[in-house]
Amino acid sequence: PALFVDNARKGSIVSRANSIGSTSASSVPNTDDEDSDYHQEPYKESYKDRRRRAHIQAEQKRRDAIKKGYDDLQAIVPTCEQQDFSIGSQKLSKAIVLQKTIDYIQFLHKEKKKQEEEVSTLRKDVMALKIMKVNYEQIVKAHQGNPSEGKDQVSDEMKFNVFQGIMDSLFQSFNASISVTSFQELSACVFSWIEEHCKPQTLRDIVIRVLHQLKSQLY
Length: 219
What we know:
219 residues, RNA polymerase II-specific DNA-binding transcription factor binding, activator, bHLH_dom, transcription regulation
């Protein structure tokens, strides 16, 4: 009996030792398998990396668009092509490009307004000429329908006297207004004289005055 008990104890100790060994062995990680799996699996980009890359690309596109806009302004605005002496050959800053663009737009607005005023004036002149044309056509038509005969007919001398009286009146104002110091001053004075002394109402008054003078001489 004592031998049987010792053998049983030895067997129990061996079995527990084997059990502990197998458990310890199973708990040890298989580093060889994990290393092989790590090297074989491809790298996957994380969501954070994708967002960062998309943000960098969008920011680069925005900067490229802004740069292209400023380059286009420098190519379109004439004053941006002129380099100031204070700047030299340095590239124009964005602030200077914007300011020159604003100045050029304001200049274009003024030129547009000036041209619109000139067009309006020309339209009025055209309308006045059309009215004069209609009146002269009516006068010619009436004269052709009732031609003057005998003593009522105006002589060529009388027509010359009317013309001479009108031109004398115009020359008086012309001589008083025109300066011949230089050709540039002469040109400026001529246009000024035309605008001031050759208005339709002024010419009408001159013609009426000349006709009254010649009528008083005839009768």
